Amino acid sequence: MTIKHIIKSSVVGLKTNKTRSALTILGIVIGVTAIIMVVSLGQGARNLILGQIQGIGARVIAIVPGRIPKGPTDILATLTASLKERDLSTLKRTEDVPHAEEIMPVVFGSETVSFEGQTYRPTIFGGTELMAEIYDVYPERGRNISEDDVRAAADVVVLGTKVLETLSPDRDLLGERVKIKGRNFLVIGILPKKGAASLFNFDDMAMVPYTTAQRYIFGIKHYNRIIIQADSEEHVAATVNDVKAALRAEHGITDPEKDDFAVETQTDAIQTVSTILSALTVFLALVAAISLVVGGIGIMNIMLVSVTERTREIGLRKALGATNRNILAQFLLEAVILTGIGGLIGILLGALLSFAISLVITNAFGLLWSFTFPIFAAILGIGVSSAIGLIFGLYPARKASRMNPIEALRYE
Amino acid sequence: MPLIVVEQLEKTYSEGDIVTPVLRGISLAINKGEFVAIMGPSGSGKSTLLHILGFLDTPTAGSYRFDGKSIEEHSEEELARVRNKKFGFVFQAFNLLPRTSVLENVKLPLLYSGVNEGEWDALSRQAIGAVGLSHRAEYEPSQLSGGEKQRAAIARALVNTPQVIFADEPTGNLDSKSGELVMGTIQKMHQERGHTIILITHETYTAEYAERIIRLKDGRIESDTKVANRRTGDSFVK
Predict the structure, then answer these.
(1) What is the pTM of this model?
(2) Side-chain half-sphere of A344: how many Cα atoms within 13 Å?
C-alpha cells in the first residue's frame, strides 16, 4: 500500500466530513498561528530595539561605576562613586588608551525644571559638546552645548520636545530662561522629536554641560558614566582592555573580580537585549504551544470517532489482505495529514496577521518596524503539528489496527 | 491432495464463565476447483466455519491445512498475505466503500498485494468486465442496484485471481432475480476461471448452484452430498 493511496483515501474521508474536518483542525490552526505571530512579532521587536542600540554607534564604549551586581539584591554595587576626575585624566592620556578618539564624562539624574509656574521633571543629562555626535542628536533649532559652556559650567540647557511642550505649550522657549534648582538656565537649543521608542528618550531630556550638572544641580564630584568613542570599530575590543587596565592601575585593583567599574559596549548591550527578547519569545511561543496540545486532543477525539464509524471498512480491508501495520499506517497518516494541513493554514494565517500588524505599527506609530517571516518557526510549526498528529493519532490508529476482522465486518 | 483439509475442527467462544461451543468436531476435505455450498440453519456454525477456512479466525482445537500448510504455521502477517493473494471474499452486505467508484473499490485488494501499480487499472477493469459491469466502472455504490453492487464485490474478490472465493450469503440481501444473476456470475467464474468456491447459504435453491452441499447442524456435519440436479444460472452475458 503506497502513501499515495493512503493520502487519497484520507482525502476522501476528509471531504465527506468537511465541516468536521475543518473544526477538528481549527485547534491546530490557532496554535500554529499564535506561534508564528509570537515569533514574527518578537523578531520585529528585536530588530527595532537592536536597530536603536546600533544607532548609538558601534564605536561607543561606556564605563559604568560599581561592580557588576552579583545578584538581584546586590543592586547597591552599582551605586558607587568610583568614577572620578582622576579617571578621566588617566583615560585622556593617549599612551594608555591610544585608540580613544573622544572621551566624555556623563552625569545624569532627575530634577525639576520650571518656567513661569509650569514645572516638569525630565532627565537632566550632563555631558559635553560631544553628546550630539556620539548619540546623533543635533539640536533642531538653536545650538549645541559648546566646549566653552563646559569649561565655564555655564547655565545653558538644550531641551527635548516633550519638556518644551509641557513647560510652554504655546510659546517657543529658545532664548528664554528656565529654572533648575533655583538657577536660571538659558535655553540654547531644542532637540528634534525622536519618538518614545528611543533607547534614551531624548524627547524627555534636558541637556546641560556636565560641569554645571555636577556643581549646581546634583552637587556631586563623580561621574555616572564615562563615554569613550574608539577611533574605529576594530579597535573597540582593544580599547575596552586598555580602559580596564588603565582604571585598574589607577584604582589599585589586581583581581579583575574586584573591579569597581564595568565596561559596556554596543555588542554587550545587543547581547543583553537579545537574550532577554529571545527568552521572552520562547516563553510566549511555549504558551502558544499549549493550544497545540489542546488541538491534538481534539484530533484524537475525532480520530476515535472516525475509527468507530469506519469499523466495517477496517474489517473489510483486513479481509482483503491489509495487515495490522497497513491499517495503523493509514489512520496515523490521516491524523498527520489533518494536523499538517492545520499547520500549513496556521503558518499562512500567522504570517498574514503578523504582516498586517507590522503595517499598522509602521503607519500608526511611525516606527521602523520590519516584517519578518520566521522560516524556522514555520518549519517548526509544520513539524510540531505533524508530530502532534502522530502522537495523538497513535492511540486511535492502534485501536483500528487491532480490530478483529470478523467483529469489524459484523459491526452495525 | 485436497486443497483444504480440516480434521476434528472445534471452535468455542467464551465470555466470562459462559462457554459456547460453535463447532464441535468438523472434518472435511475440499479439492481444488470444487464448488461447495455449506448450508445450515442460523447458529449451526456455518459462518464460523467459513471464517476459519478464510483465515479470518482461528480454531480452538483440531487442524486446518490449506495447500498443505497448517494455519498455525502462519504468522499474523502471513495470514493477511494468504487472504490477499489466495482468497477472495464476497459478503452478504457487499461491503463496498461508499463514495468510491466501482473501479477504486475493485482495486482495493491490489493496494495490499505488491502488484506493480501500473497494472492495477487493467487488472481491475478486467475483473469488472468478467462480471459484466464495465459500463458501471466509474459509478459509485450508491448509484448501483443491489445485484450490481454484489457483482462489483465479486469483481473485487476476483481481482487478485485467488484460488478460493468465499461467498457468505451473497444473495441474502437481493431479490430473487438479482440473486439468480449473482449466482450465475459466481457459477461462471467457477466454470470459466476454475476458482474453488465455498458458498454459504441457508436456501436450498441457492445451494443447488454448487456441485456439493455440506449441511451443518449444531456445529457438526449432518450430511455431505453431491448435487444430482445442478441448477445452471442464467449468465447475463453470453
Answers:
(1) 0.71
(2) 6
